[in-house]
Amino acid sequence: MRFPREFKPKPTNWKVVLTTAIALAALLFPIGVAAMPAGAVVSTGDVPRGTSEVERNTSDVPRTSLYNTDAASSLQVVVNKKRPLNPIDYLPKGKVQIGYAWVAKPAAEAYAKLKAAVSAKKLGTLCINSGYRSFASQKIIHAAKVAQLGKAAGERLAARPGHSEHQTGLAIDVSTTQLGCRIGPFGSSRASKWIAQNAWQYGFIVRYPSNAKTSITGYVWEPWHLRFVGVELATDMRSKKITTLEEFFGLPAAPRY
Ligand SMILES: [Zn+2]
């Protein structure tokens, strides 16, 4: 591993904290779990979104220690054909609507800035062709493609449910209104070329950056598929000239399931 794992609090300490928290919550809020302090959730192994931001501002721990590639709610979660979301039917909280798409809030805010920058450069008006997709809708898309094209060809186009970045709410397929928001022609646009070079400043990466990386990511070049990972990680990847999450975190290649 090229990066330290996230901190695991001593189980005994957390049992005490958790027990106290539950007791307090039961006393103060009869409805229980929903009112539990956010810290208590850490014992489930799922790091709540926002924790790293708090630590980032208050500690001098190297920032790479705050990357969490495993928790479904983490901005840095690595999802591929070998790494399904956990839980597999994960449902992100806090989505906002942009056009016809829904996007997780941090990605939506960054997208607004990216869109403004593309417009300011007079490269076109960005639009979202596809954003959040639920486990259930991905199941339908996957089944339809497999029925239409057979398993091998179908799975080259549609991820199995639970294995798509779109289920995190952090992935968007973009195009421009000038292209009718179609993703097919986007790769040859000036907007696409600018995004490939500059999206990192807004916390996005072109997640499937070239056909040369298909053996690592499992997907052909998808210039329209942007994944929000946060400005820090996107900047780190840019400065180290590493273009895939698998290579950056030293994770196994995922060419197939
Ligand atoms: Zn996509």
UniProtKB/TrEMBL annotation:
Gene3D superfamilies in alphabetical order: 3.30.1380.10
Residue ranges of every copy of the D-alanyl-D-alanine carboxypeptidase-like core domain listed in the record: 103-230
Keyword rRNA processing: no
GO molecular function: carboxypeptidase activity
Organism superkingdom: Bacteria
Pfam families attached to this UniProt entry: VanY (PF02557)
InterPro entries (alphabetical): DD-CPase-like, VanY-like_core_dom, VanY/YodJ_core_dom, Zn_M74/Hedgehog-like
Hydrolase recorded as keyword: yes
Coiled coil: none
CDD domains: LD-carboxypeptidase (cd14852)
Keyword terms, alphabetized: Carboxypeptidase, Hydrolase, Protease
GO biological process, alphabetically ordered: proteolysis
Protein's name in the database: D-alanyl-D-alanine carboxypeptidase
Species per Swiss-Prot/TrEMBL record: Rhodoluna lacicola
Lineage of the organism: Bacteria, Bacillati, Actinomycetota, Actinomycetes, Micrococcales
